[in-house]
Write a structure and sequence with these properties.
The chain is mainly alpha-helical. It has one domain. Helix 2 packs antiparallel against helix 4, helix 2 crosses helix 12 and helix 6 runs antiparallel to helix 8. It is elongated. 34% of the residues are buried.
Length: 234
């Protein structure tokens, strides 16, 4: 019984880990190291701050592992609301995990290029930055692909939140809207190479960010005060 009562708080903690490591690896580290239109400068940044680059990779690993755990914990919390939607939520979330880990190989290839003499000897000095940038572009493409599932899982998750009667309905609405935001951004960037220049992708991502961070905080803070309600659903 006590274990069930602690589930919302545990899920909130895992969600917080996903949020923090995701922001660090997907936003902070790239902002410090990567200049997409300057391969030479990017190569110097990564070579000179290899520890930060590696920390970003460790953060990736923690994020993807925690996300897998989060999906299973949310299933335990919300499966009584609608089991079919709960299963859909878990499947769509878990599909993203192996894709994310496979995509991480691009970063390991970059480590070889900046630190393995045997690999470096295969290229001229002026070719190494271009190879690094190629792997970074491949990694970005992989993120675009996996973002489809990062978006799709939000719809059944949002529906469960909306119907649960425990979490605020507005969070469920934001999560479901966030699903379409991910899809719009993916399709927009796929359809047009100039999509990012329109400046709307950031605005379209707001509902997902608000919904996920809001749900995380609710589970972590308020959820701890609502243990009996969650336990009643279980």
């Amino acid at each position: 019984m006590d274990s069930n009562k602690k589930q919302p708080t545990k899920a909130g903690i895992i969600y917080l880990i996903v949020v923090i490591t995701g922001l660090f690896s997907l936003m902070y580290v790239p902002s410090k190291l990567i200049v997409m239109d300057n391969a030479q400068l990017t190569f110097r940044h990564i070579s000179g701050s290899e520890t930060l680059f590696r920390l970003g990779m460790v953060s990736n690993i923690i994020c993807y592992t925690a996300f897998m755990m989060l999906a299973l914990m949310l299933y335990q919390l919300l499966s009584t609301v609608d089991k079919k939607y709960a299963i859909m939520m878990v499947v769509l979330a878990l599909v993203s995990v192996p894709i994310s880990f496979i995509n991480l190989q691009n970063k390991y290839s970059i480590l070889d290029l900046i630190g393995n003499p045997n690999i470096q000897s295969l290229y001229r000095a002026d070719q190494l930055p271009l190879q690094v940038m190629m792997y970074l572009n491949q990694y970005a493409n992989g993120i675009s692909v996996v973002s489809l599932f990062w978006g799709l899982w939000l719809f059944p998750f949002g529906y469960l939140v909306f119907k649960s009667g425990i979490l605020p309905k507005i969070l469920g609405v934001l999560l479901m809207a966030g699903c379409f935001g991910y899809i719009i951004n993916l399709m927009g960037s796929t359809f047009s190479p100039y999509y990012s220049e329109l400046g709307i992708s950031g605005y379209i991502s707001i509902p997902a960010s608000l919904g996920e961070i809001g749900t995380c905080l609710w589970l972590l803070i308020v959820g701890a005060k609502e243990k009996n309600s969650f336990d009643g659903n279980a």
